[in-house]
């Protein structure tokens, strides 16, 4: 038999009014008590009527999360962090993979609006300014992991520029002078910031980063492998490579192995993200770690704050990165 609000109230030892306040995020109820009631609702498989809430203009306690691809470990870990924090606050999350294509973004936004979600967390690219403006004007939006230059929205990002600098500083400290980089599209602000930080640190050490040593890649292991193979085929090949995400770094390791180039003896590799991939490769990757759990949790916090307080100013939170040194980097011996 389907559980009702009366069953939840009886199990929790509270009134149905208190349960209703928890469902609707109202009232002065302690965080511990609110969590206990939510756990009872989960255990009894109680589902408030989302349709009824939407029709009466109330919250549906549902968020949308748009990410490029769930198979990428970085976005998978961020999505889990978003789900965990949302669940703590009594919200559910609908996750959509967009492949960074505006037509899919538009379709999913339409679907989420039909579902009457309370807000959307955007971890995907969106190139159409009109679509971004219309979305931010119709519901609360938080951008996660990347910034929107065209439309003001709440934003949670890692310090990509500083992460790029840290990668270059580490390689310079190991004696490397011929450096290259694998990046995603420069239309993505986070990619531009990482490359800019990397280049700036090299230039300050009077080490040029030649244009032919900047390879723009698709977001895949295969493209990382292909572009690294091209770099290694050059007679003036680099001794150090900065990859702007872990997937590209895995491809770089594959290309080095195929070319008979030993890592780290003949090629040092630094990746970005520090997902689970970085620790399980051979050799394990030195990586610039993004605080993925914090990124997800803070994005949810901003969205809930927007719903409850409706602040006029849009907040930007920049989280620090950390260089995790493993076995893919070593001192260069000419």
UniProtKB/TrEMBL annotation:
InterPro entries: HTH_LacI, LacI/GalR-like_sensor, Lambda_DNA-bd_dom_sf, Peripla_BP_I. Keywords: DNA-binding, Transcription, Transcription regulation. One of its GO terms (molecular function) is DNA-binding transcription factor activity. Pfam families: LacI (PF00356), Peripla_BP_3 (PF13377). CDD domains: HTH_LacI, PBP1_LacI_sugar_binding-like. Residues 3-57 form the HTH lacI-type domain. SMART domains: HTH_LACI (SM00354). This is LacI family transcriptional regulator.
